[in-house]
Design brief:
Largest sheet: 11 strands, mixed
CATH superfamily of the largest domain: Mur-like, catalytic domain
Number of strands: 24
CATH class of the largest domain: Alpha Beta
Shape: globular
Number of helices: 16
Number of domains: 3
Strand order of the largest sheet: 9-8-7-10-6-11-12-13-14-15-16
CATH topology of the largest domain: UDP-N-acetylmuramoyl-L-alanine:D-glutamate ligase
Radius of gyration: 24 Å
Length: 484
């Protein structure tokens, strides 16, 4: 593709060199550069792509997109822009033929519930005969084909490449998680969403955003680029976002009035939740196989998207009811024990409270909660999570999550003041495998053991390495060991 075509509608400050040249490929990782390609110099949090410009040129890059000048040979074209991240998003969209324009795009943002909603929407749409592409935390999918996911929302160049694959394979609708990081870092710039869904907002990622106001502002960006916004009316931040955006808004909720889509007659059990979903012109009884009040909210959001797409109510019902759990989201493990083990991705105060409230309502004896907090992330939420865990649990086991570069014990020490407020008995076991072993050892008939924080993840990020760590495997191995 001609460089001048890749630059269509892209703001730039200056160009040094020829733009009437063909470009075979585009990259932001200098190690992947091939001859006759374009390289984006992205200023990251650990490395500055400008420092690798010479390496990219040596590997065959003929064009550099930069924010500042770099010393390379004069035959290399340099595009000077104010923001290389924004330029990469827009130029990638052009390079791959603006695939988002040819796809029906549904974006889901919020602190909790994004993954669950995308799975529920996918199930409904596939039940109605549509081919769906999914992009999110657990995995990316084209129909039933799984593609490994490295982050919630891919880097803009990778996203546009993936969307182009989806378009080529006949995908009708793309449903994707849109993280606050991706919005702040311009990963979805150049994409217009047919539907934008807001779930909720609670404390998370303040190590990146600084304040809740900044966090909300990042989430709001999705709805400035959505034709129709689906907003949780029961969430305070959702109501604020709705006041700051234009265009059509569909409200959903349980407790708030004036919602077009809402739930009544809710019955929660350990097996799931039943409720009546009211649509603007109809209603349906849903028997969802995922317990918890949060599951009702997720189903309402998915139902709203389906309603906008004119999906028949019987297909909405069937699509929702065919989802028998989502990996790492209130996932009840299959064991032969007389106590229950649930794995959940809860890693925020709100997420932890949601799963513990649900577990508390189905616990016949004691609720045992095992959790930790991630390193190199928002430290302020650690004591809050400790207090939440202690409030709902009979016993807490504080352990390591993904400590990253931090000392695991230091992270645990940040959690302890919160749990002490509740007087809940607790133990500290830094090694997560040993902590799980202890939880299973003390579990009694009728207990519910919550393993919170890791969810679908099958790894643990330590200071100097990432190790394989799948809690399902760990539990199975420990129970097998007990039976021998």
């Amino acid at each position: 593709m001609l460089l001048c075509e890749i630059l269509e509608d892209v703001p730039y400050m200056d160009i040094k060199g020829n733009i009437e040249i063909d470009i075979d490929e585009i990259y932001y990782d200098s190690r992947q550069v091939t001859p006759n390609s374009l390289f984006f110099c992205i200023e990251g949090f650990q490395f500055d792509g400008h420092d690798f410009a010479a390496e990219a040129v040596n590997r065959g890059a003929t064009v550099l997109v930069v924010e500042k000048d770099v010393p390379v040979s004069d035959d290399v074209t340099k595009i000077f822009v104010e923001d290389t991240r924004l330029a990469m998003a827009l130029m990638s969209a052009n390079f791959f033929g603006k695939p988002a324009d040819a796809l029906y795009m549904i974006g889901v943002t919020g602190t909790n519930g994004k993954t669950s909603i995308t799975y529920l929407v996918k199930s409904i749409l596939e039940r109605s005969g549509l081919k769906v592409g999914l992009i999110g935390t657990i995995t990316n999918m084209i129909g039933n084909r799984v593609i490994v996911s490295e982050r919630t929302t891919p880097e803009s160049l990778d996203l546009q490449r993936l969307l182009a694959h989806m378009k080529a394979e006949g995908v009708d609708v793309v449903v994707m998680e849109v993280s606050s990081h991706s919005l702040s870092l311009k990963r979805v710039a150049g994409c217009i969403f047919d539907i934008g869904i807001f779930t909720n907002l609670s404390q998370d990622h303040l190590d990146f955003h600084g304040t809740m106001e900044n966090y909300m502002a990042a989430k709001t960006e999705l709805f400035k680029h959505s034709h129709i916004s689906v907003i949780n009316m029961d969430d305070e931040y959702g109501r604020t976002i709705a006041k700051n955006i234009d265009g059509e808004i569909i409200y959903y909720g349980i407790s708030s009035g004036n919602c077009q889509i809402y739930a009544r007659d809710i019955d929660i059990t350990h097996r799931g939740v039943s409720f009546t979903m009211f649509l603007p012109d109809d209603k349906l009884r849903v028997d969802l196989n995922i317990p918890g009040i949060f599951s009702v909210y997720n189903a309402l959001a998915a139902g709203a998207a389906a309603y906008i797409l004119n999906i028949k109510k019987d297909l909405i019902k069937t699509g929702l009811e065919e989802v028998h759990g989502i990996p790492g989201r209130c996932e009840l493990l299959s064991t032969d024990t007389d106590y229950s083990i649930i794995i959940d991705y809860a890693h925020t105060p709100d997420g932890l409270e949601n799963i513990l409230k649900t577990a508390r309502s189905i616990t016949e004896n004691r609720l045992i909660t095992l959790f930790g907090c991630g390193g190199d992330r928002d430290k302020d939420k650690r004591p809050i999570m400790g207090e939440v865990a202690g409030k709902y649990s009979d016993i807490c086991i504080i352990t390591s999550d993904n400590p990253r570069s931090e000392d695991p014990i230091s992270i645990i020490e940040d959690i302890v003041p919160g749990i002490k407020k509740t007087k809940c008995p607790y133990v500290i076991i830094e090694d997560r495998r040993k902590a799980i072993e202890y939880a299973l050892k003390i579990a009694q008939k009728g207990d519910v053991v919550i393993l919170a924080g890791k969810g679908h993840e099958n790894y643990q990020i330590l200071k100097d390495k990432t190790i394989h760590f799948d809690e399902r495997e760990v539990v199975a191995e420990l129970l097998q060991k007990e039976r021998i």
